[in-house]
């Protein structure tokens, strides 16, 4: 039985960052194309994507392009044209949300179902597999048993992909409309205004303030570092890092971190294998706590947790550094065991508010003590006094290491050097069994010193330098030791390495589109609301072909004038503030008295009603589309609500 490949999937804002992701151990990279990606400002040209695909394929890593917005009718043909161009550029798969794409004349490119498809149930996952998706990105909110149920429901050749790190959307992906309702910027079209990161006050049904000016819809960042083995057991085979807006330092650090963790797991499991070639050697020590995050949570992996919110601040506080010991007119001193550097970023908490500063200069002033001159007057730093605990959210020395060359990736090769009738031949075989060779015609001369000749030959043949290869074994087959000039040896090695690179590129296989079931599998429901995000005639035709009778238009079509769920989330504010009826069960004198009454979120003039669906254990944020947005012309058809 062959080993199951484990895929580390890293984000790329640009082709340059994508190359760093591969270099730091990614088995696959996902990147936005020039249009139709769910990160509006993270697009790349087809030419840049083609270059990245060629680089990734050198290591048999894959490149996926996000084309995961919902499309209006006028965009279908441009999207189809773009998909053909991406296929010609060597892209391995598309990550899509809009089912209308499956109705178009597309090349045989592999399709992955985006997390925007809101894949929470085994029935939905099985339907998407039957529709022709080979990889499905699960909702972040699923627990281990729920992931296992999805795995059991889909064919074995379908890959289960799951987010393991990065920022979390508080809503189920694809089920958030607050941004469009208030600004006209649609999250489903890649232009979210991030209303979830704003401060809100929470009022109960009697109007009493439960929480004041907190970031109540902001949750901590995802970190599944401790759960990789459990996720593998549940059936996950692709481990996805969030972050197509992130810079190169984030991608290097987080990719390197998970590469190390997965490699440790692979060393223990003979039934698992990496999904690409080569070994990554990191030239720095990755630490996910040193790059921007809002605190860490493993979310719902082990069921509902009490502390998933980042209510106090959406800012990056950093790692604890030390304690302020003295404060001067233009300086402060901090006691710490850590080394410091000019440019370090520091934070501290003053009345639940995070105060930040930059250390313009630092200098040691005694054992475990540093004098810091900040970038602003000390008098302006509210609450700064001896005893205050200080954190560091930018480690200048550590980040400097990341800005330099920070990783190498090499593919093991074995070599056979042999003589021919007219000269010499060098044959290379890589770790994947791919072979290439080079020959040189040269007059052979017996070596005067046999041992020295062989040692020189081994040294020169081992110099693969800046290529993708490292020599792990060399066999020399000759009738007698020959004198081989270094120029001949080096030329033979370079030619063989180039031939092996070409052979590897030729051996890279793009997976074909998974065949859709015939006849079409019925969709699990026969009626769809605006939550299905049907925004064009092709998507409507897709669902009709799969048996859906009643199809409403997407929210972006402006047909939902009344109050609707603008956000559906597993995050529950009643639970966060110990007001959940389920929490009260078994508590003497309380059981049966706590009810899931609606609550209200307030941000300035904005008011949202919170409705709690206790059966599904979900919170709905209710609201209306703004009148000026409602009156603006939607760029779409208006499908009938009756079939």
Please sum up the structure shown.
The chain is α/β, with parallel strands linked by helices and 643 residues long.
Notes on the protein architecture:
The chain is an alpha/beta fold and 643 residues long. Among the domains are: 4-168 and 220-276 and 284-290, TIM Barrel, CATH 3.20.20.380; 315-403, Thrombin, subunit H, CATH 2.40.10; 407-507, no CATH class. It has 15 helices and 32 strands. The strands form 6 sheets. Strands 1-2-3-4-5-6-7-11 form an 8-stranded parallel beta barrel, surrounded by 5 helices. Strand 18 (353-364) and strand 19 (369-374) form a beta hairpin. Helix 1 (15-23) runs parallel beside helix 2 (46-58). The two termini are 49 Å apart.
Largest sheet: 8 strands, parallel, barrel
> What radius of gyration results from the CA coordinates?
29 Å
Mean pLDDT, to the nearest integer, reads 94
What low-confidence regions span 5 or more consecutive residues with pLDDT below 50?
587-591
Distance between the ends: 49 Å
Q: What's the CATH class label of the domain at 4-168 and 220-276 and 284-290?
A: Alpha Beta
How much helix is in the residues?
10-25%
Number of helical stretches of at least 4 residues:
15
């Amino acid at each position: 039985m062959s080993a199951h490949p484990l895929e580390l999937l890293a984000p790329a804002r640009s082709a340059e960052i994508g190359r760093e992701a591969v270099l730091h151990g990614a088995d696959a990279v996902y990147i936005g194309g020039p249009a139709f990606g769910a990160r509006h400002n993270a697009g790349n040209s087809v030419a840049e994507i083609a270059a990245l695909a060629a680089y990734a394929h050198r290591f048999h890593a894959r490149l996926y392009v996000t084309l995961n917005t919902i499309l209006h009718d006028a965009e279908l043909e441009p999207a189809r044209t773009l998909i053909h161009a991406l296929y010609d550029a060597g892209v391995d798969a598309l990550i899509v949300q809009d089912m209308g794409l499956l109705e178009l004349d597309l090349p045989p490119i592999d399709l992955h179902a985006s997390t925007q498809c809101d894949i929470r149930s085994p029935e939905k996952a099985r339907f998407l597999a039957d529709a022709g998706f080979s990889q499905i990105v699960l909702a972040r909110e699923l627990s281990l048993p729920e992931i296992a149920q999805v795995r059991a429901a889909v064919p074995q050749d379908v890959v289960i992909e799951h987010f393991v790190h990065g920022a979390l959307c508080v809503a189920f992906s694809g089920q958030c409309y607050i941004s469009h309702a208030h600004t006209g910027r649609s999250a489903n079209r890649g232009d979210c205004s991030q209303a979830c990161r704003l401060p809100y006050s929470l009022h109960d049904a009697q109007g009493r303030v439960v929480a004041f000016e907190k970031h109540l819809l902001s949750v901590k960042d995802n970190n599944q570092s401790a759960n990789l083995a459990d996720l593998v057991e549940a059936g996950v085979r692709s481990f996805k890092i969030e972050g197509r807006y992130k810079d190169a330092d984030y991608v290097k650090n987080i990719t390197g971190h998970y590469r190390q963790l997965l490699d440790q797991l692979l060393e223990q499991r003979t039934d698992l294998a990496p999904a690409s070639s080569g070994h990554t050697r990191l030239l720095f020590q990755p630490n996910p706590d040193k790059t921007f995050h809002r605190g860490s949570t493993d979310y719902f992996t082990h069921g509902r947790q009490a502390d998933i919110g980042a209510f106090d601040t959406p800012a990056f506080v950093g790692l604890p550094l030390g304690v302020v010991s003295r404060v001067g007119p233009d300086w402060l001193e901090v006691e710490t065991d850590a080394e410091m550097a000019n440019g370090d970023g520091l934070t501290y908490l003053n009345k639940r508010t995070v105060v930040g500063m930059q250390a313009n200069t630092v200098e040691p002033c005694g054992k475990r003590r540093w004098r810091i001159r900040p970038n602003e007057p000390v008098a302006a730093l509210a609450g700064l006094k001896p005893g205050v605990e200080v954190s560091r959210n930018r480690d200048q020395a550590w980040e400097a290491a990341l800005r330099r060359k920070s990783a190498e990736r090499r593919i093991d090769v074995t070599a056979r050097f042999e003589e021919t009738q007219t000269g010499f031949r060098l044959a290379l075989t890589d770790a994947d069994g791919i072979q290439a060779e080079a020959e040189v015609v040269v007059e052979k001369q017996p070596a005067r010193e046999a041992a020295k000749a062989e040692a020189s030959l081994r040294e020169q043949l081992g110099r693969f330098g800046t290529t993708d290869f490292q020599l792990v074994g060399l066999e020399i087959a000759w009738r007698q030791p020959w004198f081989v000039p270094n120029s001949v040896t080096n030329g033979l090695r370079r030619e063989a390495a180039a031939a092996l690179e070409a052979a590897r590129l030729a051996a890279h296989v793009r997976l074909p589109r998974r065949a859709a079931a015939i006849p079409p599998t019925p969709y699990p429901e026969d009626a769809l609301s605006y939550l299905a995000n049907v925004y064009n005639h092709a998507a409507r035709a897709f669902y009709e072909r799969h048996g859906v009778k009643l199809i409403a238009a997407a929210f972006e079509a402006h047909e939902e004038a009344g109050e609707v769920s603008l956000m559906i989330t597993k995050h529950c504010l009643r639970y966060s503030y110990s007001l959940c009826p389920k929490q009260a069960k078994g508590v003497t004198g309380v059981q049966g008295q706590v009810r899931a009454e609606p609550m209200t979120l307030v941000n300035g003039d904005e008011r949202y009603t919170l409705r709690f669906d206790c059966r599904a254990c979900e919170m709905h944020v209710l609201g209306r589309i703004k009148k000026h947005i409602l009156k603006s012309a939607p760029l779409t058809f208006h499908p009938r609500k009756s079939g």
